[in-house]
């Protein structure tokens, strides 16, 4: 993608927090979206995204 280079200082949401995202996604997949089990993982992902300036 050509936009990728211009935004090097600010990464895209899809390029950051990948381990946190996959952990969250896997949890949601296994336990379902309403499972409280995944709340810490969702929180960890949000915190990580926030660190990169993304409010989700
Ligand atoms: Cu990306």
UniProtKB/TrEMBL annotation:
<keyword id="KW-0496">Mitochondrion</keyword>
<comment type="similarity">
    <text>Belongs to the COX17 family.</text>
</comment>
<dbReference type="GO" id="GO:0016531">
    <property type="term" value="F:copper chaperone activity"/>
</dbReference>
<dbReference type="Pfam" id="PF05051">
    <property type="entry name" value="COX17"/>
</dbReference>
<keyword id="KW-0186">Copper</keyword>
<dbReference type="InterPro" id="IPR007745">
    <property type="entry name" value="Cyt_c_oxidase_Cu-chaperone"/>
</dbReference>
<dbReference type="GO" id="GO:0033617">
    <property type="term" value="P:mitochondrial respiratory chain complex IV assembly"/>
</dbReference>
<feature type="binding site">
    <location>
        <position position="15"/>
    </location>
    <ligand>
        <name>Cu cation</name>
    </ligand>
</feature>
<dbReference type="GO" id="GO:0005758">
    <property type="term" value="C:mitochondrial intermembrane space"/>
</dbReference>
<keyword id="KW-0479">Metal-binding</keyword>
<keyword id="KW-1015">Disulfide bond</keyword>
<feature type="binding site">
    <location>
        <position position="14"/>
    </location>
    <ligand>
        <name>Cu cation</name>
    </ligand>
</feature>
<dbReference type="InterPro" id="IPR009069">
    <property type="entry name" value="Cys_alpha_HP_mot_SF"/>
</dbReference>
<dbReference type="GO" id="GO:0005507">
    <property type="term" value="F:copper ion binding"/>
</dbReference>
<keyword id="KW-0143">Chaperone</keyword>
<protein>
    <submittedName>
        <fullName>Copper metallochaperone</fullName>
    </submittedName>
</protein>
């Amino acid at each position: 993608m050509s936009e990728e280079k211009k935004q090097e200082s600010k990464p895209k949401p899809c390029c950051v927090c990948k381990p946190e995202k996959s952990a969250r996604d896997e949890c949601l997949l296994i336990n379902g979206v309403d499972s409280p089990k995944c709340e810490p993982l969702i929180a960890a992902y949000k915190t990580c995204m926030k660190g990169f300036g993304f409010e989700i």
